[in-house]
Each structure stands twice: as C-alpha cells, then as structure tokens.
Specification:
heterotetramer; A: alpha/beta; 13 helices; B: Rossmann fold; 7-stranded mixed β-sheet; 5-stranded mixed β-sheet; 14 strands; 20% strand; globular; binds thiamine diphosphate; binds magnesium ion
C-alpha cells in the first residue's frame, strides 16, 4: 500500500587506516608525525599497563580489573583531544582514555586496588570517577556539558560506554536530553561486540548502534574502532560541532574486547578462539606501527626505545601505587558529607575506639 | 511579613534564592510556563527565563542524573519531581550517584542539589500521587531528607537546603500546601537542617510526627486532652535524636505518627533509638500510628488508610494507661 | 569529508480520510458500512462519555479524570480489532479504547471514582489496569505478548501511550526488548502534542516519534491520528505482522488533546485558543460523519437515533456506576497477597475494631 | 542426599523446578550460555534451551517489567538481577507494578515471579556489588523478601518462592555461596515462607541475623561463650514476629546483626516489634551491630564496614552486662 515518505535518514561509517596498516589517501587527516607518534606511544603504554594490571590482580595486589586490550584506538585518540576545562566521563574500561587524559596511571591501580582515593583526580582535571552501574553516567556528562554551555564556555564532555549500555533506560534519557538541550556532549560507544557473555545481536535488533542517534534527532556515525585515525577524525569533528554550539554526537566505535570481561570472567565459556583470533589480526596498535614504519615516521630503534621507556614508566607506576598510604578507616565516614552527621561521628567512634 | 500558605512560602524561597544566586536553576516537568502542577514554581519562568527555569522531557531519572551533572559543574539545581510516586524511576540515580559522588571522589566532586517532591496523601489524587517514600531515602547514605510542616519552616528549610553543600531531598506535604497561612518574613532566613522543632511542650507524653501528620498529632493531643510534647522532626535524615531522647526521657511515653506503611518506616528507627538511649525511661511501649502495610488505596478508602486524630487519640490513651 | 553509507532508513506517513471527510481513493480500505458505522458509534459514545465524566468530576461524583476528547480515532479503530485472547495495556487516557474493547463503561467511572474494583475486568478480557506512571506499562505488554508467542498462540498485545512517554527509559527498554525477542506487540503512541504543559518539541529533538523505531530495528510509521481509516489500516497491518510472527510495530498517531490534561489542569495557562481551535477543525468524529453521509452510509435519522440511543446508554452507565456497592475497608488488606500476612490481618483488625 | 554449596543448591532447585513445571523460565543478564556470573544458572540453558533460559538485553527495569508481563500471562519467571546494586534501576517496576498488580486489579491479575539477587558484601567486589538493599523492599507492600543462609534452606526456600502465588525477592548471600557444604536432599521439598529458623537454642540472650550474618552471629556466640538463642530470620517480609517475641520474652536480651546501613534498617523494625510486644521482658536495650550509615567502601575498607564477630561479641557483652 503506497504511503508518503515522511523522512529518510542516512547513517555513515568511516574507516581510514585498515588492518594492514594502509591509509585511505582520500580520508587521511594528515596529522603531524609527532601527534601520530604520541598516540601510538600512549596506546602502547595503555597496553602494557593493562597486562600489568591483570598480573597484579592475579597476584592479589589489586582487585577485580576490567581490561581495555583491543580498544585502545577508541580511547586514546578521543581522550587526547580534550583540552583544559573539558570533562571525561568513563564507564569502567577506560584505562587507555584515563591515561591519555593525563591522569597518573597509578591512580587507576589505586582505584582498582580498592581505595576510593584513586578517584580523586587533580583539581585541574575534570575526570569523573569510574561508573560501575552500566549506562548511568551519560546523564552526568549531559549535565556537566550543559552547565558549560549555560555559562557560555567552550568546554565539552566526552563519555564512554559499551554496546550493552545502549540497552539501559538511562542511555535513552541521556541521549534525549542532550538532543533537546543541544548540549556539547560526545557519546562514544565502544561496541566491543560483547556485554560479558551477551553478544551484540542480543542487545538490540538494530543493525547498528549508530542509528540509535536518529531517535534523538542528533548525528550518529559508525567508525572502525580499531582505527586510530578514524576515531581521531570522527571525534575531532564531533568536538568541533559541540564547541560550535551544534550539540551532541553519537559515535559508535566498532571494536572488540580481546581479553576477558574482567579478571573475574572466563570468556572462553561463551565465545570461540577463532573469533578472538580473527580480531587479533585487526589489532589497533599493530596497524599503526606498520603504517608509521612504512611511512618513515617510526623505526626499529624508536620502537626499542619506546619499549624500554614504557617498561621503565610502568615500573615507576607500580612503585608509585605501592607507596600510596593505606586508606584510613576514617575515610569511609569523613567524605560522605561536607560535615559528618552526629550519627556518623558516633559510628566512627564506636568502630575505632 | 506576609501571610503565606506553605506553597507560597516555597515559591517565595525559590524566587528569592534565584535572585540572590545566579547559579540556582529550577528544572522538572511543567515547572516553566505552567508554574508546576501545584504552582510551586509559578512566576519563576517569567522572571528568570528559559535557561534557569527549564521544562524537561518526561524522564525522572534523566532529571536527577542531569541535575547531578549540572551540580558538579557549578550549578545549584533545584529539581522538581512532580509527585512522590515518580521518584521511583529516579531511585537509581539518587542512591547510586547523587548520594555517593562526594564519597566516591573523596571530596573532589560534590552535589549541591535539591530535589523537591510534593509528598503524601490527603488530596484524593490518583494512584502513585499520594506516597510517603521517606524510608527509602533516610536509609540511603549521603542524602539529607527534609520535610516542613508550616509555611515558615518551608521557606527557611528550603533556603537552607539550597545552600547546603550536600544533596537534599525536600518533601513538601501536599495535603497542607494550602491548608492554612502563617506569617512568613520576606527577609532571608534559614532553619538549620538536622534540628527538630518542639511544636508544644508538655509532661505526660511525647508525640512525634512530620509533614502533614504534625497537624494530625496536634489535633489528637487536643482531643485526648493530654499534656504532651509534640515534636515535628522536620529533618528526617540526619535525625535529631537528642530532641527525641530529651523529650522521652522526660515524659516516659511516646506515640509516633507516620503516614508511610508501618514496617520499616521511620517510626521504627525512632523507636530503635529510644530503645538504645532511653529504654529505662519508658513507662510504656512506644506506640506507632501509621499507614498500613498495603498500597495507598484510591480515593474512596484513602481516609481509612491515613492516620486519623482518632487513631492517634486511641494510641495516646493506650500508652497513657499502660 | 566522504564516508561510506552504512544504512538508509525511511519513515512513512499515512492519511486516508482528510479533515474535510474526503477519502483518498487509492488508500481507501473499503470497509463494510457496518464496520464504519460501528466505529463511528463507538467514537460518539466515547465522546459523550468523556463529557459526562468531566461533569461528574465537577459535581464531585468521581475524582480526577483524564479526558480523551480529540483522540477517539486513535483508540476506537485500534482497540476494536483486538480479538479474544488479545491484550490491551492502556495508559490513563484510554476511555475510548477501553469502551471499544468491550469493557462496561461504568467500570471506568468506578475506577476514576476511586475504587480499585473498577480495574477488575472480566475473566475473558485481558485489559490491564490503568497505568499511571508514564511509560512504565509498555514493558508489561512486551512480556504478556512474549508469553503468548512462547506458547505459540496467536494473541498479541496492544499498548497505548503518549508523546511524553517516549522520553522515559522504560519506553526504550520496552521497544528494545520487543525488537530483540520479536514479540507480537503494537506500540501505539498517541502524539497529542502535549505532555501536560510541555510541548512535543521539548520531549525530543527527533522530527517524528515514528523514527524512534529505527533505534530498535523495528518498523515505525506515522499516521494521522484523527483519521479513523488510517489508524484502522496501520493497526490492522501491524496486528497481522505480529500474528504472523514478524514482531512489533511502533505507530505514531499524530493527534491532539482537545481538553485539559486532566480535570485538575487548566490548559489555557500554556497553550493558545487559536491552536485548540485549529485542531477542533480536524475533529476525528465530524469527518467520519461527513464521509458516511456523503457516501450514503448515514443519514439524519440514523444520527438522531444514535444520539438518542447514546444518551440512554449513558444514563444507564451512570446509573450502573452509582449502584455499585461502596468499596469495603477490608478491600485494601485483602487483595495485596493471595493470603494476607499475619501483620496485615492484625492491622485490619486494629482499624476495623 | 548430596553435599552441596549454597549456590549448587540454588542451581539444583532451578533445575528441578524447571523440569517439573514447564512454565518456569529463567531470564537475566548472562544467565544463558555463561550460566550466570556466579554460575547459579549453570547448565540450565543447555538443558532447557533458548526459550526458557533467556539472556536479556542489559536493562534491569526491562527484565523486571517484562517478567511481570510474562507472569500475568501464565509464565513463572525467575529473573536474575546480576548484583544487589543493580536492583536500583528496576526499583520502579518492583514497587510501582510488581508489588501492586494483584491489589490494583482486585485479584484479576497476579505476579507469580521470583527475582533472584546475589546479595551483600564480603567478596571484595567493585562498588555496587556488595549492597544490602532489603529495607527498600521490606518497607514496600506486596512483595515478599526471602534470604537463605544455608544450602538446605536455599533449595527449600527457592522452591517455595517459585511456587508462591505472589512476587518474591530472593536474596542470595554471595559471601557464603561457596563457603561451606551441607547435605541437601535431591528430593522435592519446600520451606515455608514467613517462618524464621531457630539455629540454636539458649537462655541468656537472643541473637538475630539473616543471610551471611547468621555465620557472624554463630561465631560471635561461640566466642562470647553465651547460651544464646540464634534466630535466622530467613524471611524478611513478612517477618516472623512470633519467633522473635517468644525468644526475647524468654531471654530478655537481644542483639541484632545487620549488614545494611544502620538507620532505618530491618533491625529497627525488629526492635519496634519487640518494643510493642515484649517491652516489659527486656532487661537491656536491644543492641544493633550493623553496617554504617555510609556507602559500602571499596575492598580495602570493606572488612571494617561489615559486622565482625568481634563487634557482635562486644554488643553481646554490653547487653549481658547492662
Ligand atoms: C546496571 C548494571 N547492570 C549490570 C551490571 C553488571 N555488568 C558489568 S559490565 C556488564 C556488561 C557491560 O557491557 P558493555 O556495556 O558492552 O561494556 P563492556 O563491558 O563490553 O565494556 C555488566 C552486565 C552493571 N555493572 N550495571
Ligand atoms: C513517571 C511519571 N512521571 C510524571 C507523571 C505525571 N504526569 C501524568 S501525565 C503526564 C504527561 C503525560 O504526557 P503524555 O505521555 O504525552 O500523555 P498525555 O497525557 O498527553 O496523554 C505527566 C507528566 C506520571 N504520571 N508518571
Ligand atoms: Mg561491550
Ligand atoms: Mg501527550
């Protein structure tokens, strides 16, 4: 039966640097070598940090940890573009973004080591604490960036979340508020194909997560999340739009979680080695090294140097973590309110006397 | 000084604080042009415009979550949840985030925000419009819970709430929004959060209530012809235990009037504290007159559900005669 | 910057019977006169019922009431197509749908009169009680229709809600579950342009509500909600798809709430008389009468007869309502659990002794 | 008879009931192929297939709301909420709908559904994974709240919960999921909902606990060398008041161990009922050993937050010496 067409929509996708390390010359953002090398180095640092964190967990030196391996290219090129005054709202798998944002990585260990002090970022960094309840933190990004807009500042908020998070009601409310109030918010969805054991197809019947933006009247696109350049470009454009007052953007980074969901998980229970292996071939770091080397922006010597530096840096990080003072029992009473209530004072006394 | 109703006092507090502090924002459903379904925000949108008085999409979790984001970045949102029953969709944001951000970030961030909620029964409204959900929030760490029972207190407590550096859930007893007027100074004043009000002093028994039930308690005390301390808790979290204990130590008898369902209501906590600090003073069990452990009925049975002066009188008599 | 197109989407709209009572011959479903007359009569009954309910509220004979006036064509042609075993999940403005579904209208008065007994529908009717929390009931429709699908029955669920409801997280979760599990659920959104005083544009930046279906990978369309035939056709197709195992549909009925939000509301505070007047010209009932008359399916005599019958019916409805026994105090204790708890038994005793 | 852990007993109950009753369904996040993050549903998906063991989208309100719809149309869903802290997003569905549908429809519809939730602290998990939210639901009409503390009870109570015609929130103390084994009959048996368990009989004092804290209570009683009644409440709503009152009437002294924050916790309600029905038997104030009125800390401070046998011993001594 014929009907009128009310509207048509188009969802685009972007990939620039392919798995073989080849750049699409038409799409190449032509970044300075320094920027490329910096992003590469940060991704390498995030990778070794991640491995180390898992090792520390196995040794009982930190608690549960959620590895980022495989998703470094979603996080580093996006977080790195934030500038002073901008806000970052992570979920719980954002070690790479946190490091790229300039937070001392030992703070991450402190947090995952079971001390809230790890979440107390420096006064000049607007890093929100890890948000464990899936999907719940995007609303905070909307609010914080709205505040900046109301004060006519240029600051924006960037928030990370997973494919699973798009199923939560709060995702919907956040996207919808952002659309209505045109807040300068970048919604960066890391579609890593799995929410613990639940595959992407079980999260939604939509063919892409990017198309969910249509429901909110905001731009949405899909990018190769293992492609540092595509993520860089997409985020750059979204940030520019946000700063220009043009509102929010949803970016779906199509990627893969190479490791277990967390150190408590055993991913072999629900997915095949073959699948994992096929994604390892699309490693986001390898392809950058290939590309940089092939284009004379990186050589073996530099690689060796980087490995050495990174290892040394990692040692320092772990050392710094292990020299943090232990949390005090008082901490759990003293930070709840600006002034502890009489009841809390009593309870603290009761416990510590 | 003007003679104001409770809701007018709320409105005046909002008006004055928005004028005084440009970071105060009001947001919620129908709070703008419509002035709120109870008219608590009447005139604000006209006075302060679209950016400071914001009609939001119909999404309570969104309202609270976005308010938290506004708060950590320098605003002081006063969010309205249209009715008590519609706090439930925002529950996760309140307990998982609003009440935790200061502690979670070890003081790096905090949430100076107020959530205003018309509260309780007595106006024969539809289902979910007459709830008393205070227990959920008094039990939750990190949030303060305040409820005025007079116009004077409404203004002073609301101003204190907006200026409090921590999140405050501000319940407004809708049954008495317009039930009576009181002299309310036009000047700026606050009433400290965390302090109960001794409505009336007496010797024989302590009657404790909050919100609209303070009036029930007052009526019952008159009807029962007892010489009672009447305590209006005023702040439900943190509780003013000292005022309760001082009174009960003096009177030895106590009746608590609570509109919410009985089990695990705030009255139980008050009893637990009396048990802990004044057991030996008790001459009789502390009595509870409460809503029942069932759903607040639709209008035909609402009056049977709510505590009545008669039920309170009965409890007073039983306690006196124990 | 050029990008690949990942996907394109089209949202269609449908209108068949225009405000002047003219049918688009290409789209005319050519329903039997009897069906048309039945729908017309039900819409007329719903209209007078609505006016009466408001009057009863003004007289204090029922409590707050949410008028349906202007939205009869969204409800009657859709609810009427449900058959035995089907489920209807209303919000709170569904007097017309409830009547068309075959529920004695006095039950509506009993409910709005403040007695839960009004929500106890007959055992052979699957009418869920009025759901006051906006947006929360669509999940129940998804669950109930999923149950039917799991049992391989043909039954479906139809759920009504407003434009405002699309902003709630539960709307999102319901649409998403329905998409994932391909449940036989019809989501009928009555976009009546207002959520109390908040206009449609403030609910979402999306240009239509129909396009929200794209986010869930399910079909969505917009229809003229004041057009009985368009609603009939759209619902019919959606029901057929649902029964055939093809899953859910979102139908946005573009309509208008002519009256106040509820009897507690004063709509003149937030919208213009001009706007209301312009929508009165698009009345969903008038255009059907014009159409039927012009096509020899209705005459003045029939109209007169209908008015008389309806008035008599209305009297009976009110009479039936007023002869219902008063609710008993016991009711609030006795229906909470299958067996009242000891505590409830005591509390009941305490109150009634 | 087999020696089972608590989680194995849960698993066995689910296996057996799904075999017995084809309308029982299991749904939630990761309950299928993965068998649940704690493996409570291990093997079910393999045994009963995709239609009866359903991995859902990541949306708790959705899980509960859809379960209600399934329940009113003839299924008996056993929904899993992955951790206690993630009940909060489903709060509105639980309190506004699940607990009300029978009453709201005057019996025309009801919700025979179970919501299983790993509960409480003690496993050094991340934030929101160690909560004790029972108060929220015990205060809410229309829902039953059950919590086993042994493998034997876990099976019998879960079977009773699934067969109960009303909605049951079934908390599982995750700290003791694998802490010990117990003989659990393979046969079908139920334990009545609403009845507490007398863990041990004594004369000097009554110690009340539930969930993992029953073990804390037992250890403390041994350490304190007192002759105590130990009561495992087992069902938190409806409370078995008689068992509590009988014991306290006998012993005259009582300590309650509660993992949740102190204020407005279930212990307060137990105290209120003792006050109402056994005040004159009390030889000392009823003592509470509870979590504190702050957020459950991350792992480093978790053990300081949780009630310890030492704290319970201290309370027992203080109560005995009062
Ligand atoms: C509200 C809520 N429900 C459940 C969980 C338990 N949980 C933690 S992570 C996770 C899966 C998240 O998937 P996704 O959003 O895709 O992020 P990813 O882990 O893949 O990065 C679940 C179910 C949670 N943390 N919060
Ligand atoms: C969760 C929730 N929040 C707020 C309300 C108060 N309220 C009742 S109806 C309504 C507007 C609903 O708008 P819409 O969904 O468009 O339906 P309409 O009233 O236009 O039919 C509001 C805010 C409510 N009932 N439930
Ligand atoms: Mg994922
Ligand atoms: Mg509307």
């Amino acid at each position: 039966m014929p009907r009128k067409t009310l509207a048509t929509f188009r969802v685009s996708s972007l990939s620039i640097l392919d798995a073989a390390g080849k750049v699409d010359p038409n799409l190449d953002p032509k970044l300075p070598a320094k920027t490329l090398q910096q992003m590469y180095s940060l991704m390498v640092l995030a990778r070794v940090f991640d491995d180390k964190a898992i090792a520390l967990q196995r040794q009982g030196r930190i608690g549960t940890y959620a590895p980022v391996k495989g998703q470094e290219a979603c996080q580093v090129p996006s977080a790195l573009q934030l500038t002073k005054g901008d806000w970052l709202f992570p979920a719980f798998r954002e070690a790479a973004a946190t490091i790229a944002f300039g937070i001392p990585p030992e703070r991450l260990l402190q947090y995952w080591g079971g001390d809230e002090q790890g979440s107390k970022c420096a006064a000049d960094k607007n890093l929100f604490p890890v948000s464990i309840p899936v999907g719940s933190h995007m609303l905070h990004a909307v609010g914080a960036s709205w505040a900046a807009k109301l004060r006519k500042e240029k600051a924006i908020a960037l928030t990370y979340f997973g494919d699973g998070a798009t199923s939560e009601g709060d995702f919907h409310e956040a996207m919808n508020f952002a659309g209505v109030f045109k807040t300068p918010t970048i919604f960066l969805c890391q579609n890593n194909q799995w929410a613990i054991s639940v595959p992407r197809e079980r999260q939604t019947a939509a063919a892409s997560l990017a198309q969910k933006a249509i429901a909110y009247g905001i731009p949405g696109m899909q990018v190769d999340g293992n492609d540092m350049l595509a993520v860089y470009v997409a985020t750059k454009e979204a940030i520019a739009r946000a700063r220009a007052g043009e509102g929010p953007t949803l970016i779906e980074c199509f990627t893969y979680r190479i490791g277990d969901h967390t150190t408590s998980d055993d991913a072999t229970r629900y997915r095949t080695n073959k699948e994992v292996a096929s994604w390892k071939k699309k490693d986001p770091i390898d392809r950058v090294r290939t590309y940089l080397s092939a284009n004379n922006m990186w050589d073996e010597n530099q690689e060796k140097q980087l490995q050495l530096n990174t290892a040394a840096q990692l040692d320092k990080i772990v050392q710094a973590y292990e020299t943090f003072p232990k949390p005090k029992i008082n901490d759990m009473f003293d930070y709840l309110y600006a002034q502890p209530t009489q009841e809390l004072v009593q309870q603290k006394q009761e416990l510590t006397s | 000084m003007t003679n104001l109703t409770l809701i007018q006092a709320v409105n005046q507090a909002l008006q004055q604080e928005m004028k005084r502090d440009p970071t105060v924002m009001v947001l919620g459903e129908d709070v703008g042009k419509n002035g709120g379904v109870f008219r608590a925000t009447e005139g604000l949108w006209q006075a302060f415009g679209d950016e400071r008085v914001v009609d939001t999409p119909l999404a309570e979790s969104g309202i609270v979550g976005v308010s938290l984001g506004l708060a950590v970045n320098g605003f002081k949102p006063v969010a309205e949840i249209q009715f008590d029953g519609f706090l439930a969709p925002a529950f996760d944001q309140v307990i998982s985030h609003v009440g935790r951000i200061r502690n979670r970030s070890r003081g790096r961030f905090h949430a100076q925000l107020v959530i205003r909620v018309p509260y309780g029964g007595g106006i024969h409204a539809p289902e979910h419009h007459s709830e008393s959900p205070e227990t959920y929030f008094v039990h939750t760490p990190g949030i303060k819970v305040v409820i005025p029972s007079t116009p004077y207190d409404a203004k002073g407590l609301l101003l204190a709430a907006i200026r409090d550096p921590d999140p405050v859930l501000f319940f407004e007893p809708k049954k008495i929004y317009r039930a009576f007027r009181q002299e309310v100074p036009e000047t700026d004043y606050t009433i400290p959060i965390g302090k109960a009000r001794l409505v009336k002093q007496g010797h024989d028994i302590t009657v404790i209530a909050w919100g609209a039930q303070v009036r029930t308690a007052e009526q019952a005390v008159v009807q029962a012809k007892v010489d009672a301390d009447i305590i209006d808790l005023r702040t439900l979290s943190p509780l003013d235990t000292d005022t309760v204990i001082n009174s009960v130590t003096k009177t030895g008898r106590c009746v608590i009037v609570q509109e919410a369902p009985k089990t695990c209501g705030l009255a139980a906590e008050v009893i637990a504290r009396i048990n802990e600090r004044a057991l030996l003073s008790l001459e009789a069990p502390v009595a509870r007159v409460t809503g029942f452990d069932t759903v607040m009925p639709l209008s035909r049975l609402e009056d049977s559900y709510l505590p009545s002066p008669e039920r309170v009188v009965k409890a007073i008599k039983k306690t006196m005669e124990f």
